[in-house]
Amino acid sequence: MITASVVTYNHHLLDFEPVLRSLFASPVQTIFVVDHSDSMLDLKAELQEFAERVLKGEPELKLKAERGFQLIYIPHENNGYGGGHNVALKAAMEQGSTYHLVVNPDVWFGPEVIPSLLSYMNEHENVGQMMPKVMYPNGQIQRLARLLPTPFDLFGRFCLPEVLIRRRNKTCELVQSGFTKTLNVAFLSGCFMFLRVSAVEKTGLFDERFFLYAEDIDFTRRMNENYLTLFYPKTTIYHTFTRGSRKSLKLMFVHIISIIKYFNKWGWWRDKERREINNRLKREIGGAV
Predict the structure, then answer these.
(1) What is the number of helices (H) and of strands (E) in the chain?
(2) pLDDT at residue 289 above 60?
(3) Which of 50, 112, 172, 250 is deepest in the core (most CB within 10 A)?
(4) For the whole prediction, is pTM greater than 0.85?
(5) What phi, psi does 179 have (nearest 5°)?
């Protein structure tokens, strides 16, 4: 069984209809929409009407619905991005799901994506997490598979002119790889996380101390301790990627707080494991250590 979750916050149905259509056309059997909104009272009804209309409109989707496909709406107190997906992950575990997709509302993809990831995971039991190549809507690549960051890397993005950190950013964002190789990366974006549920049960759920931002670094790093966490460029998704913390002082503050929590947990400058993981990845892509 494959399940998926989308966490919404004051989203209208039109804001995440593309990802729902992508999931409908995939092998996903249950979609959990965890709604953190405090005022979107009509969203549940809109979702039900949308699902009925779409599933009845195409023979293949109608057959999928007859086989037990579910779209489950879960209103929930806002406990952050990772916390919302934890609600769905727990429900997925109760259902006996084998694989679970954590996906952003602003993502969409073709029907070949999940079967491609599923096939690879079925053949490689040591893989716990995968992320495909991620593109902007205009076709440019998003550099969302990265080295584990140092304090300079994360705070430099907020405090320093881009020209001063451009070279460092290219190193951290694995530009030298050309984004053509399957790589074992300990920092994968949370916008699309295809997960082996048994690996999540062993590794643990999202750390809810991270309300928003840095939860994906922490999660992938923990998963990478026991499983491969792969950037898999043989299939592609699209992501709007609004960079909210660059546009909102409130979100920037939340982002900085999460960064501080991350380094308090894993270490600021003395992080031997980070150095070893990053050096291994540099060697893998042919970079200098």
Answers:
(1) 11, 11
(2) no
(3) 172
(4) yes
(5) 60, 35
Strand partners, 184: 230
- Which helix (H) or strand (E) segment holds residue 56: the answer is helix 43-57
Three-class SS of 102-133? EECCCEEECCCHHHHHHHHHHHCCCEEEEEEE
Q: What is the pLDDT of residues 119-146, one digit of tens each?
A: 999 999 999 999 999 999 999 999 999 9
How many CA atoms within 13 Å lie on the side-chain side of 254?
Answer: 17
Alpha-carbon distance 216 to 184, whole Å? 15
Are the beta carbons of 24 and 57 closer than 8 angstroms?
A: no
Residue type, 55: L
Phi and psi, residue 109, nearest 5°? -165, 165
